[in-house]
Design goal:
homodimer; 164 residues; two-stranded antiparallel sheet; DNA-binding
DNA sequence: TATTGTTATACTCTATAACTATA
DNA sequence: TATAGTTATAGAGTATAACAATA
């Protein structure tokens, strides 16, 4: 392969001395245009920021929300089970749970069957809080729908269902 | 809203003393199933890992690739312009460019028009290297296509085109 | 020997704030 | 005053390794 393979000719730049472009517009992405990963990254940045903003008052971030939701729907899971299911490192989950336990949303209960592991449960306060978080997360989801369209959101969910 | 709103009944767990589930399968995601952001996050983790693996030999990560590609296609851009176009913090771009400059892929040239700013260019070595990176990135993109299907990848790019 | 939870380390990335030199 | 680049800091997130208690 030569150095020119797949190279796009440099875009015409404002010549020296000419008026400089007023904005960071018109800058070509070249090969990035064809990369799904680039589009997905930019979309994820937008979607995370909207989630964090929408749930800003309750100070819940996406990862915390996912942990609370899975524990709420599957009480008694071990830390390993939650970590594997959500694709989180078990070492990281320790700190996430420390925080959620301090805030009285989650409790670790020593398992009698396997004394190495903890059974995870929501507290009563955690149940109430999670219901509120789900309402706000639904609001966030409506923002997503407004941004990309109802049909596109549904197609996206269908296309990526295998990764959840 | 009550605490029970939108709550899914807890899944049936293996009763105490019964055989425990062998794998972290069958764990319900509850409300996460309907969140585009969750699916996107999981997909992005997969896609980043494949990119990093596919370009592992050349030690180029997605962000570095995006910076090199934009500079290659738009020689002379300032750091601010690159940062804005790619949605990277300008403070972060400083370190990215430090690394790419050390590796002789990029050079910062003091602008004569505005002595505060640097015009960014690829070195000859950078041009050659980027061509190789693009070939590997195309290989990564074929992995994506194999994973989600040709049609789905194209739909994804179409749906998310507005975020690039 | 292997696994669970934990602690620790390193690096990537996001988000700010403040500083300098220029404009 | 405002902007470009830089330095610094803090927290989130990823990726490892190693350790104690337990299986």
């Amino acid at each position: 392969m030569t150095a020119t393979a797949a190279r796009t000719p440099p875009r015409k730049r404002a010549s020296n001395g000419a008026a400089r472009r007023s904005e960071a517009d018109e800058i070509g992405l070249d090969a990035l245009v064809g990369h799904a990963g680039y589009a997905v990254r930019r979309f994820q940045i937008w979607i995370f920021q909207d989630f964090v903003r929408t749930l800003g008052d309750v100070e819940i971030r996406p990862t915390q929300y996912s942990v609370l939701t899975v524990i709420g729907a599957n009480p008694g899971l071990s830390q390993m089970a939650v970590a594997k299911r959500l694709g989180i490192e078990r070492a990281r989950l320790v700190h996430l749970l420390d925080s959620l336990e301090q805030r009285k949303y989650v409790k670790r209960i020593k398992s009698k069957e396997d004394r190495r592991s903890h059974a995870l449960h929501l507290t009563a306060q955690g149940e109430t809080a999670l219901a509120k978080f789900k309402g706000l997360a639904a609001e966030h989801e409506r923002n997503v729908e407004a941004k990309i369209g109802k049909e596109n959101r549904e197609q996206l969910l269908r296309i990526l269902a295998g990764f959840t």
